[in-house]
Amino acid sequence: LVHEHIEVIDDSVSVGQVNREFQLLEPVKKLLITDIDGTLILPKEGNPGLEELVSQLRERERGTVFALASGRNLELVGEAIEKYQLPNPDIIVSSVGSEIHYVCPEWIQDKGWANFLNWRWKKDEITRNLQRIPWLTMQESAAQREFKVSYNYDEARFDMEQLKEELGKSWHQVNIITSHGEYLDILPKRASKGQALKFICQKWSIPMDCVYAAGDSGNDLEMFRGPVKGIVVGNRSPELDSIKSDKGVFLAKKPAAQGIAEGLVHYGFEF
Fold first, then answer.
1. Is the pLDDT confidence value at 95 over 70?
2. CA dist., res. 152 & res. 178, Å (int)
3. Which of 20, 30, 34, 221 is deepest in the core (most CB within 10 A)?
């Protein structure tokens, strides 16, 4: 990864103008997209199954696209890739779906996605109005992004009606996502990991039924919509307890990367 060189891709840029080593230039056979923390990695438990899965990902065939979808910002995704020696992804969906970057090998931002999210987005108004809620604490400045406002919240005092009241008319233009019982992200209405995934598939002509998505918490939920083959790892957060295993979602028994591998075997995925 080249952290210092970040460019942008506009919708007007043709696929052929992207770096020739970029995986998406070739016909995409399948796309594996996974959350990082709690899904791909689980440091407190020694990252079960990570080494084996990483080895398989490094040897994946051409046409198999690997993507990361994280609540982390782009820089922190890069740190995770380096710290845990993850294979370079082809796509990074960061900040809970509010940013899309391609890796070829530089980080190249999809400006078309940013333009799409900018519709009716009033970040300053949102932060000003939510200052009045005592059970919300704004996260550090590094967690705030152009299209994401992030808070820690007191789960025992959480009140959706109060959120609606304080946001006023802005309530109808935002997407509120809670995860792990302590994090609350406010995004443009059009933004989420699932919406970003749908945008990528439409832009690069990837059939949704060729997508395998893995997650462990509430901010992963929208990735499991439609014909996507979802994998919920065994160490899932309570927000996903209501999900039932069906043809579109596999509930793994094993944790983290072991659970991803378990789900891929279930779906007959071959690297």
1. yes
2. 9
3. 34
Helix axes 123-130, 160-167, angle to 10 degrees: 130
Alpha-carbon distance 57 to 187, whole Å?
A: 31
Whether omega for the bond prior to residue 207 falls within 30 degrees of 0, making it cis, is no
CA angle 88, 269, 37 (to 5 degrees): 45
Q: Tell me if residue 117 falls in helix, strand or coil.
A: helix
| Alpha-carbon distance values, 105 to 3, 15, 16, 80 (Å) | 10, 15, 16, 17
In angstroms, the Cα distances linking 198 to 111, 136, 192 are 16, 31, 10
> What does the block give as tokens for 254?
């094993």
Reading across the β-sheet that carries 136-138, which strands appear in turn? 136-138, 149-153, 183-188, 174-179
Q: How many residues does the chain have?
A: 271
Residue with tokens 């932060």: 127
Q: Which amino acid is at 189?
A: K
CA distance 18 to 109: 12
Write down the pTM of the prediction: 0.87
**94 membership: H or E segment, kind and range:** strand 91-94
Minimal CA–CA distance to 224: which of 238, 208, 236, 239? Answer: 208
d(CA 165, CA 143): 25
* Amino acid of residue 261: A
SS3 content of the chain, % helix, strand, coil (to 5): 40, 25, 35
Q: Angle CA(82)–CA(238)–CA(265) in degrees, nearest 5? A: 60
Quick one: DSSP state of residue 71?
A: S
Cβ atoms of residues 86 and 80 within 8 Å? yes
Start-to-end Cα distance in the chain: 23
Q: Which two tokens stand for residue 91?
A: 């796509």
